[in-house]
Amino acid sequence: MGSYRGLHNIKNTYSSDYLKIKDHGFIVNNRTAALVGLDGTIDWACFPDFNSNPVFDSILDAHKGGYLKTKPISACNVNQYYEEFTNILITEFINSNKVVLRLTDFLPVSVYSTINFPEIHRFIEAPNSDIDIAVDLKPDFNFGVDHIKIHENRYGYLFSSKGKTLGISTNLKLIKGKSNVYNNLTLKKGTYQWMVILSGVRQIGNVEQYSSYDRLEESRNYWRSWTGKINYSGLYYDYVLRSALTLKGLFYEPTGMMVAAPTTSLPEIIGGERNWDYRYTWIRDTAYVIESLSLIGLKDEASKFLYDLMAIVQKDSRVRTIYQINSMDDTNEMEINFSGYMDSRPVRIGNKASDQLQIDQYGSIVDAVFRFYEAGGLVTTYLWDFIIEILGTLKNMWHLPDSSIWEFRSEPKHYLYSKFISWTAFHRAILMGKSLGYSAPYREWMRVRREIRSEIMEKGYNPDVNAFTQYYGSDEVDGSILRMPLTGFIKATDPKFISTMEKVEKELRNEDGIFIRYKNDDGLKGKDNGFLLLSFWYIEDLILMGRLKDAKQTFENLLSYSNHLMLFSEELNFTDSSEMLGNFPQAITHLGVIRAAVKLNRAMRKKGVKIQ
Q1: 206: number of Cβ within 10 Å
Q2: How many CB atoms lie within 10 A of CB 39?
Q3: Measuring CA to CA, which residue among 535, 62, 29 is closest to residue 262?
Q4: What pLDDT, in 10s, does the model give residues 537-551?
Q5: What single DSSP character describes residue 316?
Q6: Least crowded by CB within 10 Å, which of 220, 232, 451, 595?
Q7: Mean pLDDT, the chain, integer
């Protein structure tokens, strides 16, 4: 049956006309994705690509936004789960202990990257009794601005505006409204219907011509064949598998790039302005992707991602913070006239973080190649030349102030994270290059490595607070410092790091083991919320300290905050850890799940700890 966590009462999933973020699943096909709520509503989907304008976006404005709804008219409980080893999502509505309505949703996926199905297929069944259902389709092409025309034929309806189209093909009898098509219908016991949502079409054909059964079987075989390549059978296997399937879906197959999340502007705090567009590839995430995929045997995916990304980076005149997943070159940030999720304005598309100086990006590239090398990947001479070029740039800029990992929109500072990631770049390049027998200016690299380390120890550690601090001269700690031992800069058992971690725990952690990133004012409205990646770094630190019992307990506590499908967003409400916040599902969080699970499993087996 797939992942299952009991029944949900639909009434409990709403808050101010919005489904809770955690009460969504998602379907995906290596081109784009859609969010499917527990109530059968698809309230987010972009076509044809992840970074296209959405056709369903009511999650960002319940009144203006587009949606597709299919649900029982009477009250029901809900069970939502994935078909085992797939990204095919099933939503069951249950009354009197019987499934009265079942929805099976998927985006067709193919092994051929040139084949694209910009379609949502929904299979609607009434397995055990007659059921009255409500169907409602309202698309949106330009965030509620454009007027949409509706054209009808005997097979369905076509919505159009300024050259954009969305169609619905179904045998269900629908009624044409002003901006939607809808009806209340009765499905007889044992009957079923297909509904196919089609993007970019000029006409609507008979629903049977879209071969939904064939597309379903192809998609099922694709996902199951791919999961067969995963080499992991240890602790928390179900979570590792679901994280891997989520990450695989977030790759944009034509270019090999990966979105950080398939959504934009889901808020990091309700009513706040930390609402960002994550439908881009972040250079910073590259090393996490490479290492996480390699840890579970997916070296082909790791290789393809690295070389595809490096090819795009090398074409550019500079290393950017973020990259478009396709040929679109516009990352300019603009605000949309939407009310936002639960009135959290602004709604943004684009991301001006691309214009910032974030020096850790250079170190992240080197770290990614090093992780690839560690996993047995082929580091060609061409790739090595690129490393030499990157470090040639980094040696002249590591000492500059920047915006660093959290992309502060305030005045640049000498953030410690950027400094020790720069150290890591030179350190790992030296180790890797010498092992491979490649030529490089090693003496110069070693000199720069010494300079960076000396400066960090002198200016980055504040003896008055017994801790490494957020930036030079600060007395505040930052959650990013938790990554310091994971880079090799300092041992987790070093007294200076131990005292730092104790301060981070005291200042930035809540009783559930969730960390905020920082406490200082970042120029944005509202306080920071619990950032999940930090908790996974913390677990890895505990493992390095030999505190396996604490690591295991913290990890299992974190897993309990995933949703009913084992999916994670970027953040949790710091004061109520049951509430997911931020874009969803979030790649970096699922990368953290894989890394922590594999490393904890290895450490426990190595120590001979009994695994229950």
Answers
A1: 11
A2: 23
A3: 29
A4: 999 999 999 999 999
A5: S
A6: 451
A7: 93
